[in-house]
Amino acid sequence: MAKAPCTDPTDTRYARFIGRVGGLAVALGIGVAIVNSPGIASANDGQSADSDKTTAESSAQPSGRDRDPVKTVVRQLRSQITDIREKVQDAKDDVNDRLRARSPQRAAPHVQATQIVRTTPKPRKTAPNPALVAVAGFVRRELEQVATPARARKSVAPAAAITQSGITQSAVTQSAVTQSAAAQAISPLGTPAQRDAERTATETVNTLPVQVTKLVLKTGWYVTALSEYSKVGGPDRANLAQLSRSVDEYAMGAAFQQQLLNPMTPRAVMQVAPPHTWYGQSVGGSRILYDNPDTIYRFMAVNKTSTYVIRGKFEDWNPEDPESNPKLPADTTFSLLTGLSGNTAQVLSQKDLVVKPNGEFEIYVSAGPKPDEYDNYIQLTSDSTLIAARDTLADWNVEQPMTLSIERISGPPNSLAAQLGLFAIPFIGPAVSERPFLTQLVSLIPPLPNEPPLLRGAVTSVIMLIGLQMEREYIRVATVDSSTGGPRQPNVFTDPTSNAAFLSTQLQSAGYFDLADDEALIVTVDPGDSGYFVVPVTNDWTITDNYWDQQTSLNIAQAVQNSDGKTYTIVISKADPGVYNWVSTGGLNQGTVSIRFQDLGDVGPTVSSKVVKISELDDPGVLPPDTVFVTPAQRAEQIDLRRSGFDRRFAPFMQTFMQI
């Protein structure tokens, strides 16, 4: 009996893939043999063929299909808000009074806090319920829109100390916050390319290879943590409860990295990002290795065989005085990374970036010489794999990440070899990139029109396995004293140093904490001439948790400076001590901290630390005499402001309402 012909398109697709892989292997074998012969040495000076341009535009204008769901959600929200307004009508007068009392001032804290001279021990307050805080904040912002629909809302400026009923008070405020309709503009991060990458990554992490590899990572990370945190008895119960989530986020990050292996189809893709919901899709977190809550990370695949142009724009650019632009990120860098490990080979910083009067800029990326028409240049080498663009936002409610896109303007055609990440493989990738003949040879096999999910999952699994070594390396940043090579004691933070595992233009003071419920870690930071610092809490697995509903980090714009005009005193604890500069551990007794300093100057930063009982914070000499304390209501407003700043990253959806 004759066998029926195969009609399953999946079978045909996999057969085509197997055939192409076989052809690629044969071509590589022949090419290596030819290249190793003496007669081919002169071929290395050959030229690669031009390819079609590949552009990843960063214009985040949604299509008509994208806009309809947004309008529907907004209409539903406004209907519900109308009912809420009737119940909170009395709050309008209070809101109007507060808004009229405010005046614009940048780079100072927004929440009106109180400096209290205590004669009796301060009662301890529990942290407010995040969900209730979020609802209250949402209602407050809606009421402010009704109260002043045509005006920008500004925060109050720091006021001189005043005396009221014999009590000294200090008005402390956040930065100039504009919460008008313009503040609800579409985020430059939500490009079509970004949303497509997120859908692909979500599909990839659900494949069998990734699910199996996650089990391997959980076991490996646990064994590593037992060894590296041996001085505190290994990871505690709370950190073990976060192991699965941490591995899930690492897998999501690897699924993004898998899409960044092909330098022939580059696009700017955000990863190392928290979970978020926008444009009708929910995206899992992809945070890894001491992610910074203030930083937007975007990556672009590159290779020596091609030439690229990166384009971007800073909003409201002032060519006469760029630093006066409140929307300008605290720091922006472009780092050229090599290999799969991501070592930094070159950095182009915001200070060195030549920007046009309208805020636009272009960066020419190539192994060849820079053309005269380009002011900014990144030179590729044979082992170049990625360019990492970092926008660090100190004031979440004002500063805005740049728009970003990349275009490949010349190079070999896309191929199966590039699709499989051959150019990123150590030794093999550089060898092919250095030899135009091999580059042309591997380019003969065209790419698959649709990469099978199982294949993407297999490649992602290989990337994930690198995490076994990388996780150990990054945990040791906190647990090993870099000056002696010996174990570091918990709760000890010293002057920052440079570390190859981080941004090369950055200094870090890393360590880990082990605190009882009634203990606090007091960290004193003197940033020196640094324009930016942040104190973020991460778990034993070196990633953040919910830093939008919890104050698990503070940076130079969010913290209150001491009266000496130089230092900042930060209190890290599980329980809320009522201090304005409180960094919550997010419910952890044990975890890691990597204090970062960027935009460095001539005078270097310093860090010191000590552990005290929370009940001792009121004792003389424990905290600076001018330490600012807050009431529970003021803390709730502080968290609400934090959440509204976080929401701006993922506009147009109102994340506060969506996640309750």
UniProtKB/TrEMBL annotation:
UniProt-annotated stretches for the region Disordered: 43-72
Designated name of the protein: DUF1214 domain-containing protein
Organism annotation: Mycolicibacterium agri (Mycobacterium agri)
